[in-house]
Write a structure and sequence with these properties.
Number of strands: 0
Low-confidence stretches: none
Helix content: over 70%
Number of helices: 5
Mean pLDDT: 82
Distance between the termini: 28 Å
Length: 97
Amino acid sequence: MLPKTTIKRIMKQYTDFNISSEAVDELNNLLIEIIKITTEVAEQNARKDGRKTIKARDIRNCDDERLRRKIIELSERTDKMPILIKEMLNVITSELE
């Protein structure tokens, strides 16, 4: 798990609303999933180059479409997801385009 206080502090930079601990937990779970997916794709990129070290270029060269689909899937996982989290995921996917 990522530090909840750090996640909440980052979230507070973008809103004046109160943020529930459940919202922080939900975003934490989503971020971990995004990190997992990105790492898996970056590992494949490093492996293709015959390396056992993931480099920054492996992260930059992740399969944008595969990553975007996974992020969208996560954002649509539940109707109960707070709007702030959905908006953050929308920003991330738009940056991948």
